[in-house]
Amino acid sequence: MNGRIHSEASGPRRLTADAPSVLRCRIVLAAPEGMSSTEVAAKVGVSMPTVGKWTSRFLAERLDGLIDEPRPGRPPSITLDTVEEMVLATLEEAPENATHWTRAKMARRSGLAKSTIGRIWKAFNLRPHRTEGFKLSNDPLFVDKVVDVVGLYLNRPENAVVYCVDEKSQVQALGRSQSALPMMPGMPEKRSHDYVRHGTTTLFAALNVQEGSVIGKTYRSHRATEFKKFLALMDQQVPRHLQVHAVCDNYSTHKHPTVRSWLERHKRFHMHFTPTSSSWLNQVERVFAQVTSDLLQRSDHRSVQALERDLRAWVKAWNADPKPFVWTKSAEQILSSLGRLLQRTSGAAH
Fold this sequence. Notes:
Blueprint: H1 19-30, H2 37-44, H3 48-61, H4 80-92, H5 103-110, H6 114-123, H7 142-154, E1 160-176, E2 195-208, E3 214-219, H8 224-237, E4 243-248, H9 257-265, E5 269-273, H10 284-296, H11 304-320, H12 331-349
Parallel strand pairs: 1-4, 4-5
Antiparallel strand pairs: 1-2, 2-3
Helix pairs in contact: 2-3, 5-6, 7-12
């Protein structure tokens, strides 16, 4: 199967708008322009024999001459109607007593072999076993906030620095019940599934959007008091002549009267809030994902102090060779993409 779906009904053949047919049309359409075969080949990007082949076939058979001749060999045992029915079932139906299709379930429904099901799904880029999460924001100021935050990423104000600020709360110091078995050839590292909790801490972090460096600090709580202390730490470390634009989420401590009072006394700080349910807009989440992957997923800490010591060491190592995340999407592109997603979800609801 070549990726095109043809009708097997009788009647004259019709040229389909696939890539080879478009290329052949470009070849024969260039001839009336007075180009030589060499010029046509250079313009279209093919060889001279290819130009001669399709030009002569068009002169002899017109449009039918641009269609591939039937291929030799046994015709396919699976009709295109069968393929279409199976693909539509994958997209529009669910198996009995299950949330999604597997190759075995679809094989029982369609009568096709599991290997055939797999090849068809691969050809149409269908992966029923995979799912991704999303949540659309219901913030009434969603558009304004996206434009504001993305504007900071793409066009940093003069004499200013942009920081993405947040806290990774409830980071647990987990002591594994048994020592890990080291990795060996043919065997991955093994860790016990059970552990003892030895307390929690919170990592406050501010990512410098332009440089990629991180201001980090651990606190045992994550109240407005600790957030104010962290802002004061940023105030100490950021050069005095720079304005500070801080991108935060809508956590209540970020808007607490204690914090607002501190901001009134420190006029160079400007807060920018992401829309609700839009943590993907705050670049510091990338830092938290990295520290989770590097350190926390396989952590074995017998005290909060040991966990905090490793977190501080991780931030220090990050800052030894910081690399900023490159933001490429404009606000218009983001809003357009979300608009298409809304159309799809609205259609699915009906």
